[in-house]
Design a protein that fits this description.
Elements lengths: L2 E6 L6 E2 L2 E2 L4 E5 L3 H6 L10 E5 L5 E5 L4 H5 L4 E7 L13 E3 L3 E2 L2 E5 L2 H10 L3 E4 L13 H13 L6 H10 L4 H10 L7 H14 L7 H15 L1
Parallel strand pairs: 6-11
Antiparallel strand pairs: 1-7, 2-9, 3-4, 4-8, 5-6, 7-10
Helix pairs in contact: 5-6, 5-7
């Protein structure tokens, strides 16, 4: 491959530099431009969406809580084309390559509206977008795949999370509360009751609106759960 791609919310960069991350001090990129676009979101995590590919350049983007994609892709972005010489595949996960060196930008493509770009990609058949509660048949209706992912991080990858991390998972997926608490207890982490979590999340969002906590979406998830239990 001659070039790789890096998506960013920051524009007009001439050189991209490595930064400390989960795997080390690396600059991340991807050989697939579609992936770079999908990763240029302004917020969101495994809690709010699932991205998977078929190995042939086609991707499923799955919304895991209501209205998450509207918030995640409510930004403009720059897609940087980079020479690939210094990048290596160290098997970090999803179609990524990394460089330990700074890399000069070969070309910058500006995307003024990322959400509109997603719809364009779907129209041309590059991605399928599933809006909550729709999902492909390989994602279970009970969201147990999210629990499995969290268990893998904690039990196999030995990641340590604080109470706030588990609180965010419970707030967004109250149907998984008991299973998430089991994982937190395994790490010896106390997580407050749901009502306290909700109040803290609301206060945190009001204190820093720029840090999206998906409060409205999470409260709607709780209301939907209660309606199912009636």
């Amino acid at each position: 491959m001659e070039y790789v791609y890096h998506g960013s919310k920051i524009h007009n960069l001439k050189t991209l530099k490595p930064h400390e991350s989960t795997h080390g001090n690396y600059l991340y990129a991807t050989p697939n431009k579609i992936v770079a676009i999908l990763m240029s979101k302004c917020c969101g995590s495994d809690i709010t969406y699932t991205l998977s590919g078929d190995g042939n350049g086609h991707y499923d983007l799955v919304e895991r809580i209501p209205n998450a994609l509207d918030k995640m892709y409510a930004n403009d972005a720059s897609i940087y084309t980079l020479p690939s010489e210094s990048f290596k595949d160290i098997h970090t996960g999803f179609n990524e390559v990394v460089s330990k060196e700074s890399v000069d930008v070969a070309y910058e493509e500006y995307i003024p509206n990322l959400y509109e770009k997603l719809n364009e990609l779907e129209e041309y058949g590059y991605i399928n977008i599933y809006y909550y509660p729709d999902r492909p048949n390989y994602i279970p209706e009970d969201d147990s795949d999210l629990v499995d992912k969290l268990k893998n991080y904690v039990y196999n990858e030995h990641k340590t999370y604080d109470a706030f991390h588990y609180a965010k998972w419970i707030f967004a997926h109250p149907n998984l509360e008991s299973k998430i608490r089991e994982i937190a207890e395994y790490q010896g982490v106390y997580v407050p009751p749901y009502d306290e979590i909700k109040q803290r999340m609301i206060e945190a969002q009001e204190h820093d609106p720029s840090h999206e906590l998906f409060v409205d979406s999470s409260i709607l998830m709780y209301d939907l759960l209660q309606s199912k239990r009636r």
